[in-house]
Amino acid sequence: MPKSLLEQLPEIVAQGRKEAEKILESIESRHRVSLQTREVVLPAKDSAASDWITAQARADRREVFAPGQDSLLESAQPMLGAAPIRPEPVEGQAWANRLIYGDNLLAMAALLAGDDTTPSLRGKVDLIYIDPPFDSKADYRTKVTLPGLELEQKPTVIEQFAYSDTWSDGTASYLAMITPRLILMRELLADTGSIYVHLDWHVGHYVKVILDEVFGKDNFVNEICWWYKRWSAAASTFQRMHDTIYFFRKSERYKFNQLFQPLAASTAAIHGDTRRINVPDETGKLVTVRTDEPSKGVQMHDVWEVPFVVAHSQEQVGYSTQKPIELVTRILEASSNPGDLVADFFGGSGSFAAAAEGRRVTKEGNKSVYTNSASRRWITTDLGKPACMIMRKRLIDLEAKPFLYQAIGDYQVEAAKATLGRDFRIGDLSHIVLSLYGALPLPADVNPQRNLGQIAGVEFGGKRGSKTLVLADSPNKLTGMATLKKAIAQRDNLLGGWDRVVVLGWNFEPSIGETITALNDSRLEVLVIPPDLMDRLKKKGGIDKLRGQVRFSSLQYLTIHPIAVSTKDDTDSLTVQLKNYVLLSPEAINLDDANRVKLQQIANAEPLALIEYWAVDPDYDGKVFRSVWQDYRGNTANDADALRVVTTATVTAKAKAGPRKVCVRVVDVFGFEAEVVATVGAA
């Protein structure tokens, strides 16, 4: 008889501790996980915004930080293992908020490890809030609204996959996922810190037991009930209209700011709405007296009535499990202070980061009005591209302080280590990729790197069909001209030659589209390996369960018109105009057939309408992209069309005598990125 979940819990917790301890051991080695800064986001809506980076040095491997914020880091306190030795913070170095794309387990490992510019965050985070999947056994989607194919046609609405909340071995797999992450979160928390875990009836009771084990039963503070009203549905049960939030502290020295809620109208009518205090009378007896100060209200209880984010809400960003700003603001105000470092490792719609930013938005007609409140420093992560795109846009729209958009360095390698073990070889990963593509590996004597496979043609009437060579490139390098030329040479010469060659790549040079066009080889095909392949492999429980479900797609790429440059005084004015955008093959995007047809029609008719966000760096250093200028769908500062981006940008920069590299980066409605680097001003 199989074990119940209750019987499995001790083993799940034990395995989670082992996994966390292995990660903590690895961060002390030279092979530790690192973060790669992909973009410094400057939430300006046009080129007139000040470029605060131009005055700062851009040395190799240096991250750029926002001014006006205090340095954060002190020496780490010992916890599960010895704290890694890292360089001391640079004097005067300030903090920059971070949006991190990738598996939060790897992101936390990188934050615990630190790097050459940012010491370990072990014991430095003041507050963690997470809203993880609920084990709801459902797939969640976000809606993408695109222009109609004709002028008077209604907008086209496409539903895209956001994230899956199904698990290979059911709830046991879910608990195995969450346990090591909670352990690493405890390592990140300051001794005065707290964690809030947002769940519902599906697995909340099991996770509460795990939280008791990780943080200690005595450190449980509150079970908060978030009660909301929404449209009911016919069911043979009582309507479910609440979630549960578990509040744990790291130690008895935790921060807590008492919140208050308004007096009930009946109470105020009887006792008044001014503050009352207890003072001693002539005999020393405490008596209650009324002051002229307004009453703070009554201490907030653990049942919070906060409106649900409905479709027509001002906060709505199109994310199906979005949480209201008011809800997460209460958590921020109760368990952190202005300037504290807070984190959300299941970022989703970005409500927590938006609240931590300290920018509050209200609507006056069609105009957004912002008010400032005390901000916190923040980190947020998510594995989903749609979520990261939504968060980036939301923060830009809030006119947030400049922040870093980061990803896991060598993400596929690190994800493979998590799935295949720390001692895996690149050849093992290539073998998996070839197998999922349907290729058989070539003999070892001609395939020492285990990255070549074949798809033999079927014989029809005694005639041989197409014979295809397949090359699975390494995730450690960028697939570009050198790789493609090598693949073509192997196609023509290896084992007597092949009819065609397919190159499967993880990461590509920015100019890959131009490279493929220049080669003009009809017997060469370049396909993208799904970036979340290792995550899907781990979640599904092995290669056999994933076989036949993986789609390899053609590359997305961007083209632009020649950049025009004019100089006046000491300022260069650059005119950048988008030309064309080729979408990643629709077959590789998780859509149903009807939505895929809609998408293909729009891609054919108006490809630039698929761009969600684009930005320009007029002085690209080849390492860190600075979004000096950006536009995005929904931004009406540049034009009134909320469904399209503008296609021409005018960007100003300090005049430069020699050539300058201009990088243009786009993100489409599905979160896929493409970029073009152009050299202008050359002699």
Describe what you observe in this structure:
The longest helix is centred in the first third of the chain and has 22 residues, at 5-26. Helix 1 packs across helix 3, helix 2 runs parallel beside helix 3 and helix 6 (325-335) crosses helix 7 (351-357). The strands form 9 sheets. Strands 13-7-8-6-3-14-17-2-18-1-31 form an 11-stranded mixed β-sheet, with helices on both faces. A hairpin with a 2-residue loop joins strand 15 and strand 16. The protein has 683 residues and is an alpha/beta fold. The chain is 25% helix and 29% strand. The protein folds into 3 domains: 5-48 and 59-71 and 95-135 and 170-219 and 236-259 and 300-409, Vaccinia Virus protein VP39 (Rossmann fold), CATH 3.40.50; 422-552, Trna Endonuclease, Chain: A, domain 1; 557-613 and 633-680, no CATH class.
Core attributes:
single chain, 683 residues, alpha/beta, Rossmann fold, Trna Endonuclease, Chain: A, domain 1, 3 domains, eleven-stranded mixed β-sheet, 35 strands, 25% helix
Summarize this entry quickly.
The chain has 683 residues and is α/β, with parallel strands linked by helices.
Largest sheet: 11 strands, mixed
* Strand fraction: 25-35%
Shape: globular
Proportion in helices: 10-25%
CATH class identity of the largest domain: Alpha Beta
Overall tally of domains: 3
> What is the CA-based Rg, rounded?
27 Å
**Low-pLDDT regions:** 46-93, 458-463
Do you know the CATH topology of the largest domain?
Rossmann fold
**Which structural class is indicated by helix and strand composition?**
alpha/beta
- State the distance separating the first and last CA atoms: 78 Å
> Helix count?
15
Strand order of the largest sheet: 13-7-8-6-3-14-17-2-18-1-31
- Write out the CATH superfamily name of the largest domain: Vaccinia Virus protein VP39
CATH architecture of the largest domain: 3-Layer(aba) Sandwich
Give average pLDDT, whole number.
Answer: 80
Tally the beta strands. 35
